[in-house]
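Memo to structure team: turn this sequence into structure tokens by end of day. - J.P.
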Amino acid sequence: MDSANKTSFTRRDFLYRAAAVGGTGLLLNTMNAWGMGIASTAAAPPQLSGSGKGKRVLILGAGLAGMTAAFELGKLGYDCQIIEARAFAGGRCQTARQGYTLQELGGEAQTCQFDRGEYINHGPWRIPYHHQSTLHYTRLFEVQLEVMVNDNDHSIVYLEDAGPLSRQRLRPAALKADLRGHTAELLAKSVKNHQLDAELSADDQHLLLDYLAHEGQLAGADLRYKGRSGRGFSVNPGAGLLPGAGTPSDPLGFKQLLASKVGKVYSAVQDFPMQNTMFQPVGGMDQLAKAFEKRIGKKVRYQTEVTSIRQDAAGVSVTFKDTRSGKAGKLAADFCLCTIPLSVLRNIDTDFSDKFKQAVKAVAYAPVGKIGLQMKRRFWEEEDHIYGGHVLTDLQGINTISLPSTGWQKKKGVLLGYYNYQTAAIEMSALTPAERAEFALAAGQRIFPAYRASFEAAFSVAWHRVQYSLGGWAEWNDKNRASAYPLLLEGEGRVLLAGEHMSHLTGWQAGAIESAWQQIARLHERAGA
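Reply from structure team:
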């Protein structure tokens, strides 16, 4: 080949193709192998020297950010007082179980009717292994963890609009095997026939073909994909002559898979935060909040709604309303750490500068909805042999059905009937709790024949209608990350902000915790100045 016609094959080219073939997961794995990874390194609170004795800090909000700050500042001798509008600590770290009551703004009160021992994590529900900040406190506080199955190859993918594969219960294992197999066959043949436009040596091509043959389980000299055992059998292997070796299943056709547009819900490799195996506290995610509360609960003033924030050169004052008595009051401190969501803070009377107020208003919050459905029997385990993981679907308003990762083989269980966002969440929130349950049941019935007959009780939440939250999490864009985010991180005067919204881990408990770590270091520096 004439060297003048050769195409340079750079790392950028390879990363582009890795992303195209394997998604974000393969791209990140490749970057990690080259020492270009982006995993968080925040695994412990900052090591701060000096003392905070004699200084008082008002912390607004007893979510994980506020309680983290109070716990760590307390070790330095700061006198911390937490003001919390709710009657309990944890913020959005909530678990609904028997007797738990929630009333959305403009809606009817719901009291959870699940059987004792059953629950739904209607706030945060999973902890990735690389969120070492969250795991720091579960380990320190001895919060018992169990595996949360975040990906299950034996679960179901059900699509209403999938062309030739519409309305079929497809197993993720089969989809992964067939898509990888067919794609590997296509790429292997292009390598073998020298059709790649990239410059690869003969040795590179040989190694790539070996990899593709293994990855796609390609057979023979013609490198054909004919299916593999990992996609499942039509008759499983067993003892004797029947079933004996079993009967292999036939792979889905490549053209069928492409026409189905299954890529709408399918991913060969999980995105970085979405590990296949995650953790959850035994008994509910609020066990982490309760562990914090056990240690700093005496510092929390509950059912106390902040009405104004003022500051001067000498300190900060916060006025409040006791929601039980209706009486007003006022507290003063040297510094204030505000962990109130920006969606709520923007409605509080403050003396922040106009520029800072505009930054607070610049961030939208995600409309998010969840519903837990208690079933009187675990039909997904008994009939479909699915133990945890998600059912992925394009059914309108559903997005994800998630099966419990605890209580294996018990009689009853609570599954997540939908987890919706944006427009779907807004539309769902306009329904009554009973109508939401009916919507979820009608959808699930299309996938599981036993769905409706097994239903016993429901509990739902629309986070954008929950007072003191007004959204699931902060949704930054490039523009306000560049303008508002640095301004809010710096705080104003004696007031600093913390919470998941003040991180790049929005929507995760680690974002709240790591934000608190960062801001207590900033506060401690200012207090000693």
